[in-house]
Design goal:
This protein is α/β, with parallel strands linked by helices. 46% of the residues lie in helices and 23% in strands. The protein has 4 helices and 5 strands. The longest helix has 27 residues, at 49-75.
């Protein structure tokens, strides 16, 4: 049914729930699991040393999160590939799904974006409206 599932993670509770569901679904469908974490591109932050340090810290934390997810997926005997991207959250998730020819994108209903959104998070809403494959939003 789903040969390639993309799961977007950010460390939030909805993201953790979505990851658990993606592992379950990938097991049932014998799918390859792509786990992506996106670091926001701080293009308006200038080119100060503090901006670069912040981005490097966010990238390091993202790599830790991806490594944890990979270990968990491997325990479930899944094929898993992790990706760390930098840019606009929704745009990067959609682009990775296209590049990897994913059949499904899974993500939490709200993430840990800098500004809290009302109801459905703006990232999941953008992905849902612009992705070329089905999107499953997990609460």
């Amino acid at each position: 049914m789903f040969a390639r599932i993309l799961i977007a993670v950010d460390g939030s509770e909805p993201s953790k729930k979505a990851f658990d569901k993606s592992v379950f679904l990938a097991q049932k469908c014998n799918s390859k699991l792509y786990v992506v974490h996106v670091v926001l591109d701080w293009e308006y932050g200038g080119d100060s040393a503090a901006t670069f340090e912040l981005i490097e810290e966010l990238r390091a934390k993202g790599m830790e999160l991806l490594e944890q997810c990979k270990k968990q997926a491997l325990k479930s005997n899944l094929q898993v590939k992790t990706l760390l991207e930098q840019g606009d959250y929704a745009h990067e998730i959609i682009e990775v799904a296209k590049r990897k020819d994913c059949d499904l994108i899974m993500m939490g209903s709200r993430g840990m974006s800098p500004f809290k959104e009302l109801l459905l998070g703006s990232v999941s809403l953008k992905v849902m409206h612009h992705a070329s494959c089905p999107v499953m939003i997990v609460r």
